[in-house]
C-alpha cells in the first residue's frame, strides 16, 4: 500500500476520462482528480507564416470553436507521433520539424494529465489524400495574431497556453 | 423538455464539480461534460512591475505549483468581486483598477465553465491584516517573464492563458 496515498479508488468511468478519489488518512472528504490521456497541441505555421487553426462543434461549451489542432496521445504513440497524426487528421498537413515548446497542466486543481505544446514550422498539405477527422474544418488564420483575442470562437485555454509558449520562445511574433 | 438536448442527467456529484451526461437522440453513448463554477484568474503587478505569484501544493498533479492567483467565483459575487477577494486571500494584496482581459474555456472538450482573466495594475499590500488562505504562499516574481517557461512549477494552462492575454493586450512586455 502506498503510504502517501493510502486510499485510491476509481469512482466514475467514461470512455474519455475517469475520476479517481484519494482519501489521505485523517481527512473526511475524498479528493477527486480527473484522469485522461495526455494531449498534443500544435502551433503550426506554413511558409507564409500563417497559423493553422481548426473549427469544430464542442458539446461541452455548446459552441463552434476555433482552436489550435490538438488531440489525445494514445498509449501506443509518442507525443511527437500524436502531434503529427493530429495535424494530418485535423488539417491534412504534414509537419516538418516539430519542437516541444512546453508541457503544462490543463487544470492543476482537477486534471492529472498534461498538454504537450509543439511548434511546427513550414507545414505543407499532405501529398497523398489523408483520412480526415469528421466535423473538423481547418483554415489559415490570415489576420494578425493579436486579433485572435477578439475572435469569439477562440476560447480554448489550451490554445492560449501554447500560443504564449510559442511567443515566449520567439517562434511567433506579436 | 429541451428538444436540442433531450436527455440530461447528473451522473456524479462532488462538492467541487458534477458530471452531466447528455444523450442526443439516435446516439448510443452519452456525452459527458464537467460542470463547476467559473474561475477568476488575476495577472497582478505591483508599482515596480513585478508579477504576483502563488505557490501551493496541488493534489491532482501531486506537485507544488507556481501560478497566478485564482479561485472560484461564488454564486453571490461578480467576477470582479471574486478576483479582488482571491487576490486578498491568496496574497494579502489589494487591486487598484481591474480590467477584464478575456474569458476562456479551461477545456473546450470537457468543462462547461469559464476562466475570467483579469489584469490588476499597481497592487498594494492590504493596509489591514487579512484572513489568508491556508497553504498558499505568495511571492513577487523578480525575473524576466520569459523565464517563467523554465520554472518547473509554472505549469498551469490557466496561468499561461491569462499571461498570453495580458501580453497581447499590451499590459505586460516580453
SSE arrangement:
The structure is a homodimer of 174-residue chains.
Chain A: E1 8-13, E2 18-22, E3 31-35, E4 39-44, E5 51-58, E6 63-67, E7 70-72, H1 79-91, E8 93-94, E9 98-104, E10 115-120, E11 124-125, E12 137-141, H2 157-168
Parallel strand pairs in A: 4-10
Antiparallel strand pairs in A: 1-2, 2-3, 4-7, 5-6, 5-12, 8-11, 9-10
Question: Mind explaining what this structure looks like?
Answer:
2 copies of one chain form a homodimer. The first copy, chain A, is of the alpha+beta class. Chain A is 14% helix and 34% strand. In chain A, the strands form 4 sheets. The first copy, chain A, has a 4-stranded mixed beta sheet with strand order 7-4-10-9. The first copy, chain A, starts with 7 loop residues before the first strand and ends in a 6-residue tail after the last helix. In chain A, 39% of the residues are buried. The model of chain A has no long low-confidence stretch (mean pLDDT 93). At the A-B interface, strand 3, strand 6, strand 9 and helix 2 of A face strand 3, strand 6, strand 9 and helix 2 of B.
